[in-house]
Design a protein that fits this description.
Layout (H helix, E strand, L loop, with lengths): L7 H19 L7 H4 L3 H9 L4 H5 L9
Helix pairs in contact: 1-3
Amino acid sequence: MKANVGGIDKILRIVAGVVLLALTFVLRDETGLWLWGLIGIVPLATGLMGWCPFYPLLGMNSCPSKR
């Protein structure tokens, strides 16, 4: 797995993941709405790993090129 997520993209993914996971605690009394917060696991994991499985499928790469 070669890194394909870098810089600002990584930071935005981590922040979005943390915010969505925080919603699970804020909305835990709302029926079904708290489950949407669990989606935050995906951007948080991809931001921390630095690799997104969908980027190669789309031909994208936000990592700076290594020369």
